[in-house]
Amino acid sequence: MHRGPFKPLQMLIRIVLGCMTLLYPLAVYFGLQAFDARSLVILLVALAGIRLLTLDRSPLNHWLWLPAIALLGLWSWATNSAVGLKFYPVMINASLLLLFLWSLKFPPSMIERFARISDPQLSDQGIRYTRRVTQVWCVFFLLNGLCALLTTLFGSTEVWALYNGLIAYIAMGALFAGEWLVRQSILKSPQGEARHE
């Protein structure tokens, strides 16, 4: 009852967090053109603050984000190196990989949790399918994280921003779209409809 008035604020905070995460590589890239790395630690502080406000309101916003972001911020501040700032996408992929793997070991799987929001009575076939999708996302986070790490350690700032600010999101969108098409095909099949009932 008392949470109703806060829902618009919670939604706004999530939108701001999503936009900051999406735009982070571009913010770092353009920020480094005018400021040193130490000055841009404020970006990590802002991300940590917003994640703290939304802690426990999403299965993807886990407490382990906070010490990881703190370490990156301290690293960048102490060394005045952009490497600490560039490690943020690596940290995101590593954290998501750990969360998704953890959900596979201790069900329900992460994708099943999301699926049950719209379909609390998920069928056995749906549970198996969401588990497979969770495994696919684990592979994606592993490969994407490795690419993010390579661009951080060996790529120029331009290459890092291009991959982490564009290519990675295109790949993620393609996986989302592909999974949606497969899911629709399974749900519309006679076997899928029968088992869902």
What features would you highlight for this structure?
197 residues, mainly alpha, 0% strand, disordered N terminus, disordered C terminus
What can you see in these coordinates?
With 197 residues, this protein is mainly alpha-helical. It is 80% helix and 0% strand. It contains nine helices and no strands. Helix 2 packs antiparallel against helix 3, helix 3 runs antiparallel to helix 5 (88-105) and helix 5 packs antiparallel against helix 7 (124-154).
Gyration radius from CA atoms, angstroms: 19 Å
Counted by DSSP, the helix tally is 9
Question: Mean of the pLDDT scores?
Answer: 83
* Tally of strands: 0
Tell me the series of helices and strands, N- to C-terminal. HHHHHHHHH
Structural class: mainly alpha
Q: Major sheet: size, sense and barrel closure?
A: none
- Which residues sit in consecutive blocks of at least 5 with pLDDT less than 50? 1-5, 193-197
Distance between the termini: 33 Å
